[in-house]
Amino acid sequence: MAATIGGNASREVARVRRIARIACIIVALGSLVAPVGAQGTRVGYVDMKRLIDAAPQLQAGRALLEREFADRDAALRAEQQRLSELEARHRREAGVVDAATAEARAREIDALRRNLERTRTRLREDLNRRAQEEYKRRWDAMQDEVTAFARESGYDLIVESPVVYASPSIDVTDAILERLRREHSRGQDR
To answer: Is the pTM of this model over 0.85?
Structure first.
């Protein structure tokens, strides 16, 4: 019986020590948080999806890519149209032309289809590569603007989406968009 009492006492002491450690940690964390709150920490929130969709710098990047790839895209569409016309002609004339002509046309269609797929793949890869380059270049500039806005406006922390919840009172997306529009209109986005 004495062993049982001693075992219970040591478990109780261990439990009290754990509770004391947890209480010390809570007090320590509370002392760290209290001064921050007392200083009036300013926190802002940026809706990155809205920023990406509406920032003139990224819109300009998309327009630049459209212009840059317009000729290649038009050529691809013309080849696709040519393939469609050849396939339709091949189906229409299947019973009318001799076997050698039908076979030659089928080989031409297959070759054009393979070439079209290679061209489409190359175009997609080039477009993705250039889009990533433009996005990164413009994204870095946008991040710099967000940082400058935070410093100039006295924010201690700017949180970007996604977040679980952000009050509309701390949403600074419109202010940052306005700043980006002003910078863009000054011609600093090249």
So the answer is: no
